[in-house]
Amino acid sequence: MTRIDSSPATAFDGITGRDSIGGGIPIPTLRSRTAYAPAALERDPGMPASSWRLRSDAWEYLRFAVKRLATESDTADALAADGEVHRNLRALETIELYWAGFGQRYVAAIGELLEAGDYRTALDRIGRVVNRLRHDTVPDEPRDEFLDEQERAEFTIDSDPRPRFEVLVVDETTSQDRDGLRTEALRLRGPADDFVYDYVVVPSADDAVAAVLTNPNILACVVRPGFSEHTRQKLSRDLQEAIRLARAEVVPGAAPARSSLASVQRVLGLADTLAAIRPELDLYLIAGAHIEDLAGALTRRFRRVFRREDQLELHLTLLRRVSHLYDTPFFSAIQDHARRPVGVFHALPVARGGSVVGSKWIRDLADFYGLNLLLAETSATSGGLDSLLAPTGAIKKAQDLAARAYGAKHTFFVTNGTSTANKIVHQALMAPNDVVLVDRNCHKSHHHAVMLTGARPAYLEAYPLNDFAFYGAVPIDRIKQLLLDYRAQGRLDEVRMITLTNCTFDGIVYDPERVMAECLAIKPDLVFLWDEAWFAFAAFHPVTRRRTAMAAAKRLEQQLGTSAHAAAYRAQRERLFPSGGETPGSPAADDVWLAERLIPAPDARIRVYATQSTHKTLTALRQGSMIHVYDQDWVRDAEEAFHEAYMTHTSTSPNYQILASLDIGRRQVELEGFELVQRQLDLATSLSQAIARHPLLRRTFRVLTAHDLVPAANRDAGRPMPLRDGLASMWQAWATDEFVVDPSRITIEISRTGVDGDTFKHEHLMDRYGIQVNKTSRNTVLFMTNIGTSRSAIAYLIEVLVKLAERFEEARAQEDPDVLVAEETLMPPLPDFSAFSQRYATDGVLPDGDMRAAFFRGQQRGAVEHVSPAELAERVGRGEQPVSAGFVTPYPPGFPVLVPGQVISAEVLDFMAVLDTREIHGYDARRGYRVLRPEA
């Protein structure tokens, strides 16, 4: 039998130290097989360090290895199995400390059975764990006599259909105390409870951080002051570094009045760390003599303070709090409406299936979608259903719960996509002739919104990735320079808002906290709109969350209130205004401002908006989107205008099914979002590694990394794919680099296939194998994983890529390689925004212009002519400056190459000539470009 080369047993270095045993319980040495050299199996560098996979694979491989021990007669295979057993037992003995259910003693007991040669009993015990992890059923009563009563009771959980979660307890306890705690939890469990839970007990603050980083089932944490500071587990360097980073980056909160005791400070520090890692966790404190004082002082950190004897109250509180996370007010209202007998006398014939179920011709609609869809359809806003335009009941509560989940102060549901969400925010915040700094390659909805509001866009240029035919993101020094230019021209007061795409279609992610801080240092009342259409999932992972707009706004607000920030601000102002403090007109040269990482004034206003296509990356029906608001001036400066804009763009007949899906999708991410996102990132890393390591695939395809997608000047000299090296490596990159790459997106360079991206997408992936992708460029294909991606789907994609690589390699062997090289060199550079024509430019010095005037002139009969690409090229060659009459938007990627009033340049025409997308909005291939006629 051939040994598996990439055994996950060796990959547990991501959780445990190599050859180390955590927890102090010895793993027995298997008799007669100690000669096996563990170094024979080296660490698999491609195995991600996500604990859900490490744990499940460890039990799977342990079962496989024990089966081999029980059945193999070959000495070499038996020795290999012995080595795998050893490493898996060591890894699991550490991992199981951070999960409820089986625990370290269970693992040690399996080791003792193996030491005694009782492989069959050990295999039975291992199988129970594997079945639970697979969500299969196992016998309610274990067949062997080896389990104690505590472990025997554990198996009753598997037959309980109620949702199950885990509660972390941080305290230095004995094994007897831990058993007593779990026994008490089982005793308190009642048949009327909606949920069941079990305890994970860890002794130290380090172990608490490790637990919440590795165990997504934990939904609450109970802190007892008796915990120690550092772990006795022999963890890997990666996990140790992740713990250090997590504990080091917390912004200190205000300490209570009676906080001189070191023990209180330790408790506060741990609470702040856990809340920063997993905001969805509920924190509770078990206190002693000073419980009355602590109850008032620690309210911000802990939901409630208990005494040790209050076990029943704690039990009820845990269940009640999870029920609040589980609550879906609008989805429940829809369900209730569907069950009620009602008479329909409003303008919706399809309601209750009235026009469908009795029809001879369209009854298949109900057969296909199900009767519940029709029973839930209504145009009523009463009876508990609420109105989206003026919500006061179920919808309002659902939106408030979403704000809690995403870290916003206010959240609004949108049922016609993020394109509309963007227009709502622009209209609410911008007025005619306000200047908005706009990412040049942002989604077309922003450009349309600018036109509708009458604001003047000043376009920011993202760095181009000419080798791959798409743009990156806008470097911070370009944003700062443009703001400084407006200041130099005396027009900074006209700049109202900055809008940027985070993350981009191709996965380039900004550092919103840095961008907002440095911009606010130049103009302290700027408003920020972050288009996070593709980034909604990021709020539910401790590393990706820090780069979401809402998390960045909250963190920035906390920092502005600290004394350390005020001191740093004063020190920097002395350097930036060397000849008179803050005297107007005496700032240092722009080079000084660009070289420093600017610090905003403590009284700068945090005004942040984020639009998210929830349906793109989380559970929601198509067009389900959200607007998140973190605006300190909401009531004074934005609320009324926002509601008017919301009324303008929101249908009076919103789709209730979309609203219900947004509501229940919020429930999902609060209860299991961390697990789903962690799995998504892990699977994406597995895909990239499979392509990079497979001999055939790496000859045909190339995975683009941060080194390809982010210029060296905009990132630290780190690893090209940080998550591949462990959580700590990714954490460090996402904490320091100006731009990072979303690891859930895998961009594959396909030049060696000999076909362009559009052909590869349609003819090879979709038509032949049913693989659906959103985006290609001339020589790249983007594969996006999501929370619904499975390991089987990844395996199928790899299988398809192997088949295609074989096909392309056969075809390539018969082609002249010089032809391919010649084709690659024909790709022109990506065009920058040329300029607004002189008629629509504001002042000829700064880049903003009156796009709205150009747009409406382009709607006038007789003001527009259609010109072919060839004739336009001739005009440009003669030195003319033809002006675009409308938007020209290739889709994907969905941003306009031309906007109304823009000068049509040779660079734009060259780029359009080789564009491989089949869908271009605003361009008629038969008639040509729409061009404004010169005015008399």
Automatic annotation (TrEMBL):
<feature type="domain" description="Orn/Lys/Arg decarboxylases family 1 pyridoxal-P attachment site">
    <location>
        <begin position="328"/>
        <end position="554"/>
    </location>
</feature>
<feature type="domain" description="Orn/Lys/Arg decarboxylases family 1 pyridoxal-P attachment site">
    <location>
        <begin position="607"/>
        <end position="791"/>
    </location>
</feature>
<dbReference type="InterPro" id="IPR015424">
    <property type="entry name" value="PyrdxlP-dep_Trfase"/>
</dbReference>
<protein>
    <submittedName>
        <fullName>Ornithine decarboxylase</fullName>
    </submittedName>
</protein>
<dbReference type="InterPro" id="IPR050881">
    <property type="entry name" value="LL-DAP_aminotransferase"/>
</dbReference>
<dbReference type="InterPro" id="IPR000310">
    <property type="entry name" value="Orn/Lys/Arg_deCO2ase_major_dom"/>
</dbReference>
<keyword id="KW-0808">Transferase</keyword>
<keyword id="KW-0032">Aminotransferase</keyword>
<dbReference type="InterPro" id="IPR015421">
    <property type="entry name" value="PyrdxlP-dep_Trfase_major"/>
</dbReference>
<dbReference type="Pfam" id="PF01276">
    <property type="entry name" value="OKR_DC_1"/>
</dbReference>
